[in-house]
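Escalation from tier 1.

The customer reports that the assembly of two entities below gives different structure tokens on two consecutive runs. Tier 1 could not reproduce it. I'm attaching the input and our single run for tier 2 to review.
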Amino acid sequence: MDHAMSDLKEFITDLVVPHHRRSVNINQDHITMLEGSKIKKQHSRKRRAHKSTTLSRKEYAKLGLNTLPTKQMKYEEALPLHNLWKGYVREHLALREGGEVPEVHDPRYDEFSKQLVKLDLHGAKLRVTQSKCSTLENLSGICVMDTKNVLKLLGKDHRLRTVPKSECVFGLKVGNMEFTIFGQHLNIRPAERSVKKIKNFVEPFM
Amino acid sequence: MTKDKKRKLLAQRHVSSRMNFLFQASHLMAASHQAKLAAYYGKLCRNVGTKAVMHMAPALKRSLCRRCSLPLMPGVNTELRVAEENPTPQAGEETRTASNGEETPTASNGGEVEKTKKKRHRRLPKNRKKKVEKKEEPPANPNESQPEIPLNALFLECSLCQGRRSFTLDNQRECWLEQPQSLVQVLSLPGENAGQ
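Tier 1 run:
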């Protein structure tokens, strides 16, 4: 405080004409310090309030939630997910013991195939049957993550592989049934798939 | 009309079964320590709900973390912890220490500058106090008659994003064990008595 005051006195006396400097007498009560730090504090408060409620996309990505490690997951760890998925499929497609899958001429066929498209694929055992890229063919694994353009399959060799949807045809086994999924028509965000209207007739690309 | 309604109901059933599956999957993954996948499934479950305009049951909704939608399971993911101190006295202490720190060097020089500084320091903590009080007031309303009882807060901290889900302890509630109306019957196990 002493130091600051003497600094101030010096500064003020320097402003006065030299031959009057001796007679300068500063009353300390007349000094008011101004500290301009208000704006910053308001800013920080707002930010903090924002932080507590939701994550922004940037923060979400920074936490690494959009990516998965490729070699850390074991195939056995995904098996319970697959078992859970089996139960879900049975509920979703209304499959019963002894029931039959509707044929093309069946009136139920339309409904059934629509439900098939809306099926959630997390936990399904998928196999790439055809692909434009020959190295992707015959890859198989449990689907762990499903994004708009890509499926992430966890293979039996404990590796997570990223497979683009649009270039591939997937084979899916449910019980004793086999389905063929054209990946091109799967290019919807997984959250929107259950809401999106689906055309009755779509063309396979191969 | 009836056919439309039926179709709508069917669609809703499918969406709800999907959400149910995703919710279970996220819990499964959280239990097997795959935090990222768990958060992803939780988020997806939420998103499906918002897209299809369907509400989760509030209790289930709250079991997901508010920020990253990782399911918070005490004992598996997180621990239920007690917040160390009440925020109100802490703020008070801070101001005291701050003012003390200011005073010791300035004590030799009594002046207006010092006073103004002090004033500024006082103002800020006051604002803080007010804010804190506002936050706590809604759950503490029944407690106002007995202000001596401190309100301890329990919280679950998310391991991924450090978001907190806090609970307020209110011993005026009916389910509190100290309240006489909450006790219906006292049973003691025979094994315990033999041990004593």
